[in-house]
Amino acid sequence: METRSNHVLVGSVVLILLAVLALFTVWIARLGGASEKEYDIFFKQSVDGLAKGSSVTFSGVPSGQVKLIQLWKNDPQFVRVRITVNEDTPVLQGTTATIQGSFTGTSTVSLDGAVKGAPPITCPANDAANQCPYGVPVIPTRTGGLGALLNSAPQLLERLSTLTERLTGLVTDKNQASIAGILDNTNRLSRALADRGPEIAATLAQTRIAVQQAGDAAAKIGDLAATTNGLLAEDVKPAMANLNQAISAAKQSADTLNATIGDARPGLQSLSKQTAPELARLIHDLRQMTDALTSVAERVDRNGAGSVIGQQRLPDYKPGK
Question: In whole angstroms, what is the distance from residue 250 CA to residue 246 CA?
């Protein structure tokens, strides 16, 4: 009976010690978990090389590890990754997550982009169901590093394939012959230019001389223009002053003439209405008198002065004639 009682006592003590050890382990786990924070990341890319327990870094500093990797049931295009980081890791507004691959095949989750003074990433109270579907804050992602290259690899391969096909279609036998002809023509042109090198050099030299002469001519024209401006400033100004004085005198004379004409206008009107007809009759009478005197002068010249005093004598009549 005593031996059986000792076994029961020992078994009870062992069970009590195991229970205490379990409680201590749970307490330690909770104590350690209280110093870590959990976040979800939804990657819309391949997470090849990433596994449970992979390292999480912040600006290259180890800060946590990957806790869970699974496809997101709401949208299979995304991969949900649960990470835990140290409590002092500055996961703030503006922080993003990327997958950093390596040639060894392992990948890590890299966090970066914390802004000083920004608030930490938390679940909003008004839209927590959509913003935090699994009850922890969500860190936004960005494509970068080897992951971006791997994601764009299919498009790059497709473009390289298209470019290869186009180059293959371009380099046909006919196009090769055309390219060969172009190269031959280029060679002939190069040889012709080489043969005409001295002539081209002489032409360039003449061109330089012509340009220099043009520059000298331009300088002389500039000097002439400056001299002309000086002459205009010295000689033309006095002449313009004299011309202005002459114009003023002519204006005064014109004003005086206008006044004189205005004063003589009544006399001119009387002359045109009364004296002009009398002068016309006088001129008519003078013309008649002039014609008569001309006739008398002509008669005196032909027949003498007696033709004016008496009648003209008839010629003697002789019979038989």
Answer: 6
Residues 27 and 32: their CA atoms lie apart, in Å, by 8
Task: Retrieve residue 99's tokens.
Answer: 């997958």
Q: Tell me, yes or no, if the pTM score tops 0.90.
A: no
Q: Are 83 and 76 in contact (CB under 8 A)?
A: no
Nearest by Cα to 69 from 28, 31, 108: 108
Which of 64, 70, 68, 69 is CA-nearest to residue 37? 64
Q: What is the pLDDT of residues 133-160, one digit of tens each?
A: 998 999 999 876 555 565 566 677 788 8
Written as one string, the DSSP assignment of 131-152 is: H-TTSS-B--B---HHHHHHHH
Distance CA 133, CA 124 (A): 11
Alpha carbons within 13 A on the beta-carbon side of 229: 6
3-state secondary structure of 244: helix
**Residue-range domain boundaries for the chain:** 33-149
